[in-house]
Every structure is written in C-alpha cells, then in structure tokens.
TrEMBL record, chain A:
Keyword Ribosomal protein: no
Gene: mreC
Sorted UniProt keywords: Cell shape
Cited function: Involved in formation and maintenance of cell shape.
Location of the Rod shape-determining protein MreC beta-barrel core domain: 126-279
Family membership: Belongs to the MreC family.
Pfam families for this protein: MreC (PF04085)
InterPro entries per record: Cell/Rod_1, Cell/Rod_MreC_2, MreC, MreC_beta-barrel_core
Keyword Nucleotidyltransferase: no
GO annotation (BP), single: regulation of cell shape
High-level lineage: Bacteria, Bacillati, Bacillota, Bacilli, Lactobacillales
Protein name in UniProt: Cell shape-determining protein MreC
TrEMBL record, chain B:
Source organism per UniProt: Philodulcilactobacillus myokoensis
Transmembrane parts of this sequence: 6-25, 37-56, 76-94, 106-126, 146-168
Topology relative to the membrane: Multi-pass membrane protein
Family per similarity comment: Belongs to the MreD family.
Protein name, per record: Rod shape-determining protein MreD
UniProt entry tagged with the keyword Cytoplasm: no
Keywords from the UniProt entry: Cell membrane, Cell shape, Membrane, Transmembrane, Transmembrane helix
Keyword Membrane: yes
Record's GO cellular component terms: plasma membrane
Source organism superkingdom: Bacteria
A GO BP annotation: regulation of cell shape
Length: 283, 177
C-alpha cells in the first residue's frame, strides 16, 4: 500500500509550503507598497488579459444581449418616470453651469489652484471578475497606457464602487467597496445634516445580507435622518471630494452602544457591473 | 502516446477556455452568484480533474500543467502569488492518490471532486486569513461560501462529466486506429 506521506514527500511538501508562504508575503508587501506590480507580473497580466478577449468577448456579448432585451421590456415604465424628472434636471443643469463658472472665476481670483473636487475621468469596461467568494475584485480593460494610476476611485453609474489596486499596461484590477478587508484603505465619507452640520466618517464594512455599506468613526453625535445623501469627503488626499456614495437607510448604535452605526444603501449596483468610470485627482 | 493523439491540442484549448470562463461567468452572472451567499464556478479545476480521470494511457503531464495554470490564476485573478500555484498540483496529487483505490465511475469521480473542491477552498481561504487579506469568519465561510460553491461546482460536474468523457474517449480511440 502506498503511504501518503513518505519521507521524501514530506520534505517536498514542507518546502512547497515555505515557498508558498514566502511568495504570499512578498506579493502582499509589493501590492501594498509599490504603485505597479513587478515587470514580469505586469507583462504576463497584459498577455493574459489580451488572450482572454477570445473567451470574454462572446460571453459578454451574450450577457449584453440578454440585459438589452430585459431593459427593452422596462423601457415604457422607465420613460414615464423619467419624463417627470426631465424638467427638473434641465433647471439644475443650468444652475450648475452658472455656479461652475462662478466657482472657476473665484478660484482664479484667489489663486487656489486645484481643489479636491477637480477630477479627471477615464471610462473602461469590465473584462473579468476574480472567481473568489472572499475577494470582490474586477478587472477592467484600461491601464497605465490610458492614464490609470493606483488608488484612483471607481464609479459605477453615478455611485462610488471601489478603488484601483493594481495597474498593468493594458488592464487594471479594482477592489470593490463590498470587499471585506480591514487592511485595505477605507473611504472617507461625509453627510450633511438638515441644519447644515457636516459629519465625517469612513466606510467600515459591508453587509452582504442587506446590501448595505456601513459608516463608522463618526466625528460627531448629531442626529442623522434616513434618506440623507452620503458623499466622499476628500479627506486623506487620495479619494476626490464629492463622489456620491448612497443614501442613509438606517441609523443605529454599534455593538458596544458607544458610537452610532450608519447603514447606507449604495447607489451603484455592485453585482451587475459592465462599465465603470475611473476618477482621479487632477494634478 | 501523447504525440500521436489529438488530445495534445484539445487539452490546452480546453484549459484556455476553462481558465477564462471562470472569470467571464463570475463577472457576467454576479447578480445570481453573489447574494447573502456566494458561489463561484471553477471550470479550471473541473477540466484538470476530469482530464486526470480520462487521460487513460496517455500522459498529459498534469502536474506541470496544473502548476502553470495555478500560477497564471494567481497572477491574473488573485494578484497574490503562491496560492493556486501549489493548490492545483496538490489537487491533482490527491485525486491521483484516491483514484488508485477506487474504480472509476461517476459516483467515485463525484466524491473525489467533492474532496478536491473542499481542499482547494479551505486551503485558499486559510491562506487569506493568515495574511489578513480577508475579514470573513470561518463560520461565515463554511455556511455562506463553502456550501453554495460546492453545490454549484458539483452541479456543473454532474452536467459536464459525460460530455467530457465522450470527448476524451472519442479522441483516444481514434489515435489507436
């Protein structure tokens, strides 16, 4: 009968475990500290991403076909609702333009330079998603060549969805806001209360059961109402200011009853991402 | 011999398709696969294990293939190296070891695949926990991730077992004539 662990095999297995843990440590450290992965990794990711289009293309095509048909069925209902909003949108847009112009003039006069709301954006489409239950990560088809930089924020539709964590030449990886990982950077966000007070906090987690983002580390104990809009605050200097995150649905005290925990319904649908916008600071 | 068999083309092509199908299916069906539970298809593992079962007298060098594919899996999907690079060959090794004691039929293959997927998920999750890349608890992992993922993968296995067996048998036979 063959033994599962012979002496030689035991040595091989131990060596394998050591190499595995070593490689893990190395890649975790590199991904934390460097802005781009090592050249070999970058090169092979580019080649793999390019080759993957042969399979991804048809699969994505079929998906688009289905979702287009589905959207077509909803069109009439949506049209009714949207018609009501159109009049309002035009008014807001005109006002926005006026304010933007005024803002620019004031900035020029004050010689402020770039503020945290100045951004540049890159549109990209999603080519793959990491097949893993505990790592919510998508791969997009734009990279260093198109101006993507590590730590840029990512929008889906109009809402915040994640952050760029690895940049290759022609594709990059994005960690979604739903990812459960305390060692990754948190997003600084803020809410304005009814009486104009600004509350700062950070995204502290994600509740999979209810599809809600949790906001914690609040700077003040002012009362928050559900329905209030949450934006990124731009503090910390990495995320641009003023990206829409979602609406507050529930305010409760946390597990220890010391500070309040705010649940936010994200405006971006994290499970049907086909196109994203990568947003970075303009400097 | 591998040199005379059409499998020398079919196996790498299947490997290629399976590899990208994992990412493409996960990305396109995310709405169904990720809810309070989450399940993920692993076509690559399926293709590797089924190739092992059906390779017969042809040696496909699956240990080397699994290491290469595992390394690509780490690079392209996980971005942390050293997980699948060793887990995929380990799966092949375990399957081979179990395979010696069982007559190959659908039920025994099903059981071996069950063990393979469990080993793969548990080991890779442990790796993630050790390096603190994920915050999920082991209980959460067992209930919401391991269970549904096993169910999905065994379902896919049951559907694809006979077609792939047919594919392999057909091209092995042709090489003998």
């Amino acid at each position: 009968m063959h033994k599962f662990f012979s002496n030689r095999r035991l040595v091989i297995i131990i060596v394998c475990i050591i190499i595995s843990l070593g490689l893990m440590t190395l890649s975790v450290e590199i991904s934390k500290k460097k802005t781009t992965p090592p050249l070999l990794q970058q090169f092979s990711n580019d080649v793999t991403g390019f080759a993957g289009r042969i399979v991804d293309g048809p699969v994505n095509g079929v998906h688009h076909l289905f979702s287009n048909t589905h959207q077509l069925l909803n069109t009439y209902q949506e049209n009714q609702i949207l018609k009501k909003q159109v009049g309002n949108v035009a008014a807001v847009q005109v006002r926005n333009q006026a304010l933007q112009g005024e803002n620019q003039q004031l900035k020029r006069q004050l010689k402020i330079g770039n503020t945290p709301t100045d951004t540049r954006s890159i549109n990209a489409s999603v080519i793959d998603r990491t097949p893993s239950s505990w790592q919510d990560q998508i791969i997009i088809n734009k990279g260093e060549n198109d101006g993507v930089v590590k730590n840029m924020s990512v929008l889906v539709g109009s809402g915040l969805a994640g952050r760029v964590v690895e940049v290759n030449r022609s594709n990059s990886k994005i960690e979604l806001i739903t990812n459960s990982n305390s060692s990754s950077d948190r997003f600084p966000i803020q809410v304005t209360t009814k009486d104009g007070k600004v509350l700062n906090g950070i995204v502290t987690g994600y509740d999979r059961n209810n599809n809600e983002i949790e906001m914690g580390n609040l700077t003040s104990s002012a009362k928050l109402k559900s329905g209030a809009k949450v934006l990124t605050s731009g503090l910390g200097g990495i995320t641009p200011k003023g990206i829409y995150v979602g609406k507050i649905v529930n305010v409760s005290s946390d597990d220890y009853g010391l500070s309040s925990k705010v649940s936010i319904k994200p405006s971006a649908d994290m499970n049907d991402i086909q196109v994203v916008t990568v947003i970075g600071k303009n400097n | 011999m591998l040199r005379d068999s059409p499998l020398r083309f079919i196996f790498p092509i299947g490997m290629f398709i399976a590899f990208f199908l994992d990412g493409a299916i996960t990305s396109n069906l995310a709405g169904i696969l990720f809810r309070s539970y989450s399940m993920v298809p692993y076509f690559t593992v399926l293709w590797l294990v089924l190739s092992l079962f059906f390779e017969g007298n042809i040696n496909l060098h699956l240990e080397i293939w699994s290491a290469i594919v595992g390394f690509l899996f780490d690079l392209f999907y996980f971005r942390y190296l050293g997980i699948c690079l060793f887990i995929f060959p380990l799966i092949i090794y375990i399957s081979k070891w179990l395979y010696r004691y069982l007559n190959l039929n659908f039920i025994s293959a099903f059981l071996i695949y069950f063990i393979d997927i469990t080993v793969m998920l548990v080991l890779s999750f442990m790796d993630y926990r050790i390096f603190d890349i994920t915050d999920f608890s082991y209980t959460n992992f067992l209930v919401n991730m391991l269970g549904p993922t096993l169910a999905l993968n065994l379902f896919i296995f049951a559907i694809l077992y006979f077609p792939i067996q047919f594919l392999f048998n057909r091209y092995r036979v042709r090489q003998k004539n």
